Amino acid sequence: MADQSEENWPEDDGAPGLKRRGLMFILSSPSGAGKTTIARKLLASDPEIFLSVSATTRPMRPGEVEGKDYHFVDKPTFDTMVEEHAFLEWAHVFGHSYGTPKAQIWNGMKDGRDFLFDIDWQGTQQLNQRAHEDVVPVFILPPSIDELRRRLIARGTDDTKVIDARMERARAEISHWSEYRYVVVNDDVDRCFEQVREILQAERMRRERQTGLVSFVRELLDNNPPPGA
Ligand SMILES: Nc1ncnc2c1ncn2[C@@H]1O[C@H](COP(=O)(O)OP(=O)(O)OP(=O)(O)O)[C@@H](O)[C@H]1O
Ligand SMILES: Nc1nc2c(ncn2[C@@H]2O[C@H](COP(=O)(O)O)[C@@H](O)[C@H]2O)c(=O)[nH]1
Fold it and tell me: Mitochondrion as a keyword (predicted)?
């Protein structure tokens, strides 16, 4: 991914205010396991992470807001975006097309921002290939298959046919669990949210992401030279 080469990242100007590389925090799960629920809690509690708003051809659900939950586009518009390489990744899911527009992520990552992705395993594989070092993939499992179906029914957004299709696809989605760095079971929402938040905090502190560390440590050592130096 040429545009994300090291020279595009923030300058290493040392402490205070150590600069940090932005990260791509991915939440995937079978439909209904709760990734949107966890994503919303994370976004509400952490002003330093921004939602990657996908484009999709699927119809808007009640309560969804254009530009906030998704960019709702028609198929020709989506196909044109594919042709123009406007997506960082894209995939067909449940008979509709979904993709991550490049521009928002590109500009934000250059400013050291973190982005939250609610995408499926296909998109995760594509992002992993393009920006492995910057990707933090987290997989959310339901506590049981019965509970997964119960949640899809309780959500009340899909008819029985669509729910059956989502349950059928759950098997394929779950089969990709081992491609993720972290796996969390969403039994209790609050516990799951805390676990996901801890993963995010720990990943932010990874040495490689703290681009100001080299000069900061150099300065620490310069101010404490070995005896006789
Ligand atoms: N731990 C939980 N216990 C009970 N209900 C939950 C839990 N987590 C989420 N839910 C509920 O389950 C339903 C599905 O959750 P959500 O929409 O977040 O799933 P999703 O993984 O984002 O699904 P999709 O991929 O279809 O968007 C929602 O009604 C949500 O309120
Ligand atoms: N590869 C991508 N998958 C995406 C994207 N946006 C959403 N998704 C996934 O699609 C399904 C269905 O979502 P829903 O909102 O219609 O229930 C779910 O698994 C999402 O994670 C995307 O940009 N790329």
Answer: no
Classify the phi-psi angles of 24: left when phi > 0, otherwise alpha if psi is within -120 to 50, otherwise beta: beta
Span 112-131, pLDDT tens digits? 899 999 999 999 999 999 99
Give the tens place of pLDDT for each residue, 152-184.
999 998 899 999 999 999 999 999 999 999 999
Q: Which helix (H) or strand (E) holds 168?
A: helix 160-174
Omega into 76 within 30° of 0, i.e. cis? no
Q: Quick one: average pLDDT of 131-148?
A: 96
- Residue of 28, 36, 96 to mutate, ligand 1, most atoms within 8 A of C-beta: 36
**What is the H or E stretch that residue 109 is in?**
helix 102-110
Starting from the CA of residue 141, give the closest ligand: 1
Q: Which CATH architecture has domain 19-223?
A: 3-Layer(aba) Sandwich (3.40)
Domain coordinates in residue numbering, the chain: 19-223
pLDDT of residue 153: 96
In this structure, which amino acid lies at residue 89? E
Q: Amino acid letter at 50?
A: F
- Residue 165 identity: A
* Residue 28 in contact with ligand 1 by CB distance below 6 A: no
Q: Is the pLDDT of residue 71 over 90?
A: yes
pLDDT at residue number 17: 58
